[in-house]
Amino acid sequence: MNKTTNQKAWIFLAPVLILVAFNAFIPLMTVINYSVQETFGNNEFFWEGLTWFENILHSERFHNSLIRQLTFTFTILLIEIPLGVAIALAMPTKKGIWLSVCLVTMSLPLLIPWNVVGSMWNIFSLPEIGLLGNVLNSLGFDYNYTRQTGDAWFTLILMDVWHWTSLVVLLSYAGLVAIPDAYYQAAKIDGASAWSVFRYIQLPKMKRVLTIAILLRFMDSFNIYTEPFVLTGGGPGNSTTLLSIDLVKLALGQFDLGPAAAMSLIYFLIILLASWIFYTLMMRNEEE
Fold first, then answer.
1. What is the pTM of this model?
2. How buried is 67 (Cβ within 10 angstroms: 0-12 exposed, 13-18 middle, 19+ buried)?
3. Which of 159, 188, 236, 281 has the largest count of CB atoms under 10 Å?
4. pLDDT at 254 over 90
């Protein structure tokens, strides 16, 4: 019996694909155009070739921003992934009022807009009138995130952990509730410990959702701009100037469109390459 394939669905899908491709293609071509040329206004352009790319790749400013970005990204991944899994394991598995309370509580930080999160933590962390700053200073800590680099990093990471750990919790919980009860019953009969259940049942079954969580958090942490900009503005000095903030300063602050366009393309390729490596390694480990 021959199976016939109906391709009519593409008729409805094609307009959306064309629109998305159009919206992505034109900005990308504009950035590429600026990255190989120089302009002094009046719509006059001068060919520069790969000069801007070479300048960015050899720039100490770019290297410092990249190091700060990688430090921030891997720090929050090391905190948020284990913390999110631990909270998901502590949540109730049976339906009831407490499960609903936990799910709603975990979802609340994700509903707050990014600029509001930055503003909230800006006020919350002020050393004199903010709750966090006032409490830390009253305990004897010399806390001032507007002047001290360590305090600025501590506040920035704490803000991101508060805002985005919920995403890891919800994804991990979805993976946990999808595990059939038969696995737990078999482990109970064998007398397996809680650690053995986690190591050999829960963790392997959560690999896919954890892969998604790590990829989402990695990409989002590399694209983060609003929260740190509102909170610290990249300061004190340039201590919290991540790649996104440095790119905006270069493009809009200094109006160096050529170098900014080259930097944005390098930025994009770094995210794309790192995400591909992450995904490839995780999928390979799962297959093995």
1. 0.85
2. exposed
3. 159
4. no
Question: How confident is the prediction for the chain on average, in pLDDT?
Answer: 87
* End-to-end CA separation in angstroms for the chain: 37
Q: What is the pLDDT of residues 94-131, one digit of tens each?
A: 777 888 888 888 889 999 888 899 999 999 999 888 89
pLDDT score of 194 more than 60: yes
pLDDT digits (tens, 9 = 90+) for 144-171: 998 999 999 999 999 999 999 999 999 9
DSSP string, the chain: -PPP---THHHHHHHHHHHHHHHHHHHHHHHHHHHTEEE-STT-EEE-TTHHHHHHHT-HHHHHHHHHHHHHHHHHHHHHHHHHHHHHHHS--S-SHHHHHHHHHHHHHHHS-HHHHHHHHHHHT-TTTSHHHHHHHHTT----TTT-HHHHHHHHHHHHHHHHHHHHHHHHHHHHHTS-HHHHHHHHHTT--HHHHIIIIIHHHTHHHHHHHHHHHHHHHHH--HHHHHHTTT-STTTT--HHHHHHIIIIIS--HHHHHHHHHHHHHHHHHHHHHHHHHHHHHHH-
Q: What is the dihedral of CA 233, 243, 161, 203, to 10 degrees?
A: 180
- Which CATH code of 1.10.3720.10, 2.60.40.10, 2.60.120.10, 1.20.1250.20 fits the domain covering 48-114+167-287? 1.10.3720.10
What is the rounded distance in angstroms from the CA atom of residue 226 to the CA atom of residue 116?
9
**Chain centre distance of CA 62:** 20
Q: Please list the residues that pair with 45 across neighbouring strands.
A: 39
